[in-house]
Amino acid sequence: MLYHLLFPLAEQFPIFNVLRYITFRTGGAVMTALVLSFILGPPVIRWLRSKQGKGQPIRPDGPASHILSKAGTPTMGGVLILLALGIATLLWADLRNAYVWAVLLVTLGFGAIGFADDFMKVTRSSHRGVLAKLKFTIELLIALAAAAWIVYIAPEGLDHGLAVPFFKNVLVPLGIFFVPIAALIIVGASNAVNLTDGLDGLAIVPVMIAAASFAMIAYLAGNAVFANYLQINLVPGAGELAVFCGALVGAGLGFLWFNAPPAMLFMGDTGSLSMGGALGAISVITKHELVLAIIGGLFVLETVSVIVQVVSFKLTGNRVFRMAPLHHHYEHKGWSEPTIVIRFWIIAVILALVGLSTLKLR
Predict the structure, then answer these.
(1) According to DSSP H, which parts of 162-318 are helical?
(2) The whole model's pTM is what?
(3) Is residue 287 a part of any domain in this protein?
């Protein structure tokens, strides 16, 4: 919005020329989302507390310490993230860019699903929300619509191809199968972040790390000079997603202020589903779908731990982990919550660096 309002005045006021630079607007989005989070955080928390009473229901089969330490903490903190993220994006992004709207569609759509799920949990005082099959179906429909839109927007040659990291401009042609595969990537990323969200600050920092990484990827993939130098697929217009990623980093930092141990607020499915879906959509647009599995490797590990646990128990009656997802396994082993969270953050940083290295190692 600011881009459209102020950049046309650049001839009279040269200072507005800075709005032409994606890097400047990305920085503006970071700071705007951060400040909005600080301003909106306290009233949002008060409002959620007044509406939720007992706060987020704590699973009775979870770690016993959670019943004492986390009881009464309000959930749906994703509302704060979405407000700061949405406003900052609308203020600083070029709203003529269709990719921005495609990512916003996924973010707000998945956020609405998460909000409904959180609302049902709170009103029923139960950890069970929307039926899993119904939730997955709606997620898949939104992801399919977004994937089809992304294919329509993408230039010819990039619209139905799956990029392979470490190889120069390699695209695996998937034809009509690209849309459902892209949709599954979006849904998978969304639910992977959701599974990771279980300890104070555990999910939001890896999300910010991934968002910062994809801000760089989006900027480079959208720039003809850098894309040619790095031998990655040029996606015209993708650079504008750096602004969205910057807003996500700022909103995440603001949320972390209130989510740091002991948390005053949980993000709930409202936040985790929306942010994971956004990262999935950005990876599809920038043709770094498989790189997301590296940068977001922590989310993959958490998801795999759940799959392994369920399959093992159904086939053999035995559990591989003391509890899944993986972070609960280490809680049961006696690790303190801050130890788990910080070590998982370190893993997220390492995996992000490995993922970013694919830009040059080709």
Answers:
(1) 178-196, 204-221, 224-230, 241-259, 268-285, 289-295, 297-316
(2) 0.93
(3) yes
